[in-house]
Amino acid sequence: MFPCFDLQVNGYAGLDFNSQPPTLAAMEHGCQKLLDAGVTRILATVITAPVEAMRQRIQAIADALATSTLVQQVVAGIHVEGPFISPEPGYVGAHPRQHVLPADLRVCQQLCAAGQGHVRLVTLAPESDPTGQVVRFLTAQQIVVAAGHTNASRDELQRAIDQGLRMFTHLGNGCPLLLPRHDNIIHRVLSLADQLHVSLIADRRHLPEYVLRLFLEQLPEQNIVIVSDSIAAAGLGAGSYHLGEQTIRVDDQGIAWTSDGQYQAGSTAVLSHMVAWLRAEGGYSPAQVEQWTWLNPLKLLTHE
Questions:
Q1: Structural Rg of the chain based on CA atoms
Q2: Distance (Å, rounded) from C-alpha 28 to C-alpha 17?
Q3: How many CA within 13 A on the CB side of residue 80?
Q4: How far, in Å, CA of 60 to CA of 20, rounded?
């Protein structure tokens, strides 16, 4: 089986890492379903919520890693996406805006401590951390820092890179439908892509196929990371589901929407499905797909 490592999994097959808090039984069930679906390794992703709720969810995952060999087999660590992101419409995406915070070192330390050494990746908006204090702290802890859900200027991105920023989370998503035609977050990241790993949601719903192909052509191959951003509804079909406290609606095309229908709320695909499409219909070589879905994530997390 082709190995794959997904750095952004909010949940799968009924498991929601953002439930309050996820139970060990739910995590073991979800991990087994991920293995059955062909997903080798993941980062369990906890998104923006009240700080105490985030802390409890992170701790629950860490506790499961301490007790369950099945969870240990699948979950390589924790991705904390928020709460230090942009609160602006579009950039905030499906994250609950009322719980977004400016970057705060004390809060960051609390969340990392709850992870008991298992927090491996943090996504934040560089403009929320103007002094770079949080980026520098995380980098010193050997935690990968990613920009995402952000409208950081090019100078702000470059400053964060100089302070330790190493990745950009799901380029082309977590931003408004309408952007300035020249100076926008997508173009800024592309102009700095030789200095950043860049993740892409390759379900061909978050990004139209031609846009996905364009990004894959323009980004340095050694910096491409394919992620699923899968949620609890993945693998379960159309209907209503939860992402944390939010109700998510999955339509007949398998697209997950926030309750107001304004934003996609994660993916209903898993990384192994994306691997299959990239290798078959996508026409990309096995070596390319292995690099984007296995080798690059591994190198990023091991700081090679």
A1: 17
A2: 12
A3: 37
A4: 9
Give the pLDDT band (50/70/90) at residue 249: confident
pLDDT of residue 258: 81
Which residue has tokens 């739910």? 26
The DSSP annotation for 222-259 comes to: GGEEEE--B-TTTTS-SEEEEETTEEEEE-TTS-EEET
What is the residue extent of each domain of the chain?
A: 5-301
Cα separation, 197 vs 187, in Å, equals 15
Question: Which runs of consecutive H residues, i.e. helices, occur in the chain?
Answer: 24-36, 51-67, 69-74, 105-114, 133-140, 154-163, 185-191, 209-218, 271-279, 286-290, 296-301
* CATH number attached to the domain at 5-301: 3.20.20.140
Q: How far apart are CA 243 and CA 76, in angstroms?
A: 21
Cα–Cα distance for residue pair 45/166, rounded to 1 Å: 18
| pTM recorded for the entire structure | 0.96
